[in-house]
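User: Teach me something about this protein's shape.
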Amino acid sequence: MKSAHIVIGGILAFMSVPVQAQSTDDDVRCFLLSTGFARAAKAENSRRASALTGAFYLGRLDGRIARPALIAAIRRYGSGMPTSQAAPIMRACAARAGVAEGQMEAAAKQAK
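Assistant: First, the predicted structure itself:
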């Protein structure tokens, strides 16, 4: 598990936007990409990882965005994007979810 967090940290070091400062639009885009990747993936591990990433962003959006704003964001990002853009964004989305998972695991260990 430590090696996964090191890899995620390396990915995050090259991202131009601070990970914690994601807007609801970013979360909608990550949710839509995750669900799309989960549907399209041929490998079970990829489907599962994408679905878990989607669940993370669903949780971030729940109660945080008003329905009209959610509808507008889905209209903006729901029409798709070129594959050349989708894959790197999806990797960044998954990395953000991985960082959050690591933080939760660390907090759980400290709470024991």
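Now, about its shape. The mean pLDDT is 84. The two ends are 19 Å apart (CA to CA). If you'd like, I can walk through any region in more detail.
User: That's plenty for now, thanks!
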